[in-house]
Amino acid sequence: MIELSSSFIVMAYVMVVAITVGAVAALLQKDLLRAAFISGAESIALAFFFQALLAPDLGLTQAIVGTVLLPGIIILGIFKTRRTEED
């Protein structure tokens, strides 16, 4: 069985709390642009967490998809859709 150091366990708990707080903060935002940026920041924290768990393939994929592509698509969708009111 692999023995983990106490500093690694503390770091893992801190990262899990930071990721959870970021996800909840993105959900509670009323401004969609702010929610997209917070979601991207949360995704980069998750990518670092995967790197710390020695899963570099997951970390790299999460960094590309969750930090760049997903917020980019959301922001593009926000700017492409306009709400117009009829008189």
Question: Total helix count?
Answer: 3
Cα shape: elongated
Q: Tally the beta strands.
A: 0
SSE sequence, one letter per element = HHH
The amount of helix comes to over 70%
Could you report the average pLDDT, rounded to the nearest whole number? 89
Number of domains: 1
Q: What structural category do the secondary elements indicate?
A: mainly alpha
- Give the distance, in angstroms, between the N- and C-terminal Cα atoms: 70 Å
Could you describe the largest sheet, including whether it forms a barrel?
Answer: none
Radius of gyration from the CA trace?
A: 17 Å
Proportion of residues in extended strands:
under 5%
Low-confidence parts, pLDDT < 50 over ≥5 residues? none
